[in-house]
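Q&A log
Question type: sequence-to-structure
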Amino acid sequence: MKLLNSLSIIGCLLAMLTGVASAIDDPVSLRGYRPVDKVSVRPAPAKVVLPDDRYQRSYKHAPPLIPHKVDTTRISLKKNQCLGCHSDLEAGEIDAPKIGENHYINRKGEKLGHVSTRYYFCTQCHAPQMDKPPLVDNRFNPNWK
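Response status: OK
Response body:
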């Protein structure tokens, strides 16, 4: 009797699932309908906005924005070209801002003689500004000054 009840419940569940599966429409992409065989149009490349001086920060303790092109700057596990101008040794000679002292402190709070690995990939926080419309509406208003 228990076996018969179990089989009838499983049968009902399978019938419901097949009915639900057939009622579902084709999946809809978040980017809208676009046939797979249609070639997408590549957007125009963005131009970097170069300021006369340095960008003002958006809020207190915000990472500074990059006021120059970085499209050819390479950052890999073995070499960081940003350090060529912004390390303690080079920054004074070419009037580039030097890396903050916090970039030399590891997770344990120990001062290092080199940039900590958690700050090594500069473009995670620092970004150049592009001449493009915003992707989403932004009503952020920094009232920290």
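Response note: The chain has a mean pLDDT of 81.
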